[in-house]
Amino acid sequence: MEEKEKAALYSAIQGFVGKLWNGSDLYPDPCGWTPIQGISCDIFDGFWYVTDLSIGPIHDNSLDCVPNAEFRPQLFELKHLKSLSFFNCFMSPFKHPVTIPTRSWERLARNLEKLEFRSNPGLIGQIPSNFGALNKLQSLVLLENGLTGKLPRIVGKLTNLKRLVLSGNWFNGSIPDSFGGLNQLLILDLSRNLLSGSLPLSIGGMVSLLKLDLSNNRLQGKLPIEIGYLKNLTLLDLRNNKISGGLTNSLEEMFSLEEMALSNNPIGGDLMGIKWHNLKNLVVLDLSNMGLTGEIPISITELKRLRFLGLSDNNLTGNLSPKLATLPNVSALYLNGNNLTGELQFSEWFYMKLGRRFGAWNNPNLCFPTGLISRTHFPYGVKPCKEKITLQEEQTNSDSKLYDEFQGMGVVTLKCDK
């Protein structure tokens, strides 16, 4: 390894792990016989150069960061760096807060493909605008840090990105329209922030997207029709936002969806306008607490891969189709907290299979027939149906005479069972 490269590496590492470390136990250099865990090298023009630098307790014998860890300018002299990651390195937002450097990232732009900051609560401030110079970047992960501010539009110019994870921070404001230009993106996770505003119409431009997680924010407005352009999407998670305006019919065009979670949004409307049978790959469908009205469409029973169906805490009405029990893979069915009516027509085996994972409680006008089900397996929290009123079959002689007498007068008195 060139002395210049080694000196830059050692100084950069010391900034994170402390001056007591000097690499003296590495022979003959960090890429030799005793390498540092978290450092990888490759040969260029006959010399070893660092290509991968991971700081923090990623491996058993990795170098841990000191409380006052800092970025040193020598980090940006590692010109062949392809991957740079920090895990549990900047831990104290009050005693030793650290911001991401705002300069020199362009010096790594020629080779850097992966940049990650994971679980660093002491990492505060905003995303530097010069991240936009990292045009080779394929993975940008800023997960569970203390970062704040708005999402920079410049990130939308990183058109080689395959993964963009900005979850678990304090980002606010709206999702930039420029993100729609990330047409090679496979994973977009902006969950657990303070993002607001409507979903951008440009979201339909992310045609390669496999996973979209925007849950636990403050997003509002309608679901855009353009969301149906995401034909390859397998996960759509918009839980715990303020989205309203009903379900868009374009959802039925997302044929690859395996998980759809829209719960805890005031979306409203009904379920009847969606051709649910088009979404044959659905495994999880969570539409709880959305203000839904109307009946449960029979087309949901055609989702043969479905394992979880959550429709609880809505205003759904009507009878439950016994065909729901024919879903071959269903293991959890939550319908509690609605206005469903009538008798449940499921078998004892179905109740035994699901147990407490069959939720139908808090439907005041729903009941189950006691004669068809044992006392050990029945729907939890659902009342038994009342016995029907019947005409007493056996009459005493005096009752028969009295009956005949009143019948002649045009009046009939019935004695009924409870």
Textual characterization of the structure:
This protein has 418 residues and is mainly beta. The protein has a domain at 268-389: Alpha-Beta Horseshoe (Leucine-rich repeat, LRR (right-handed beta-alpha superhelix)). It is 8% helix and 25% strand. The longest helix is centred in the first third of the chain and has 15 residues, at 3-17. InterPro entries: At_inactive_RLKs (IPR050994), Leu-rich_rpt (IPR001611), LRR_dom_sf (IPR032675).
What structural class is derived from the secondary structure elements? mainly beta
Q: Any idea of the CATH class of the domain at 268-389? A: Alpha Beta
According to DSSP, the number of beta strands is 24
Evaluate the radius of gyration: 31 Å
Helix content: under 10%
Categorize the overall geometry: elongated
Mean pLDDT: 90
Helix tally equals: 3
CATH architecture of the domain at 268-389: Alpha-Beta Horseshoe
What profile does the largest beta sheet have? Answer: 19 strands, mixed
Order of helices and strands: HEEEEEEEEEEEEEEEEEEEEEHEEEH
- Proportion of residues in extended strands: 15-25%
The CATH topology of the domain at 268-389 comes to: Leucine-rich repeat, LRR (right-handed beta-alpha superhelix)
Fourth CATH level, the homologous superfamily of the domain at 268-389: Ribonuclease Inhibitor
